[in-house]
Specification:
Helices cover about 40% and strands about 20% of the residues. By secondary structure, it is α/β, with parallel strands linked by helices. Strands 2-1-3-4-5 form a 5-stranded mixed beta sheet, sandwiched between helices. Strand 1, helix 2 and strand 2 form a beta-alpha-beta unit. About 45% of the residues are buried.
């Protein structure tokens, strides 16, 4: 389980900082979400001037959506399943490439209240950042509260992205 008490800032506050960093660098981002349900995209888009850095987002909540929205093929998915770090990296990279952005960020997880179809426990999410730096991380909240997890997953992704931007990945 991850200590998420350090994630006390709201999505709008995190998104404003990330947006300002992207704008100042002249960089762009595209977002793929599943269990956060579009909260990351909404937070980034709520910032005035978001068109300077936000190029697009997709909520990919099923294999069908992955095919339709990201063009994922059976070959892309060979030996892979959703809700894993390799999958999160794949979809972040695909979104970055198709939207011609500096960064692609993604999350895929199980918000709850039940386990995912893959058997992942509620409160588990895989995050990915693809750009000048490529990284992934798995977070487990230990909670089955769906709305709380959706918010936490979104804040974890924006926090990881902000940390990535701050560590000199320009």
């Amino acid at each position: 389980m991850t200590d998420h008490t350090t994630l006390s800032e709201s999505l709008p506050v995190l998104a404003a900082r990330v947006g300002e960093m992207l704008r100042a660098r002249g960089q762009t981002v595209s977002v793929v979400e599943s269990s956060a349900g579009g909260l990351v995209s909404a937070a980034l888009l709520a910032i005035p001037g978001a068109s300077a850095y936000f190029r697009g987002g997709a909520v990919v909540y099923s294999r069908r959506a992955g095919r339709a929205l990201l063009g994922l093929t059976a070959d892309d998915m060979a030996g892979m399943r959703g809700e894993t770090e390799p999958y999160a990296l794949l979809i972040a990279g695909r979104m970055r490439d198709t939207h011609h952005t500096t960064w692609g960020i993604a999350e895929s997880g199980a918000a709850g209240p039940s386990p995912s179809p893959y058997g992942d426990v509620p409160g588990r999410v895989c995050l990915a950042i693809v750009g000048a730096t490529t990284l992934s991380r798995t977070i487990e909240t230990g909670d089955a509260d769906r709305p709380a997890n959706m918010d936490l997953f979104a804040r974890h992704l924006l926090t990881l992205f902000e940390q990535t931007l701050r560590t000199g990945s320009s």
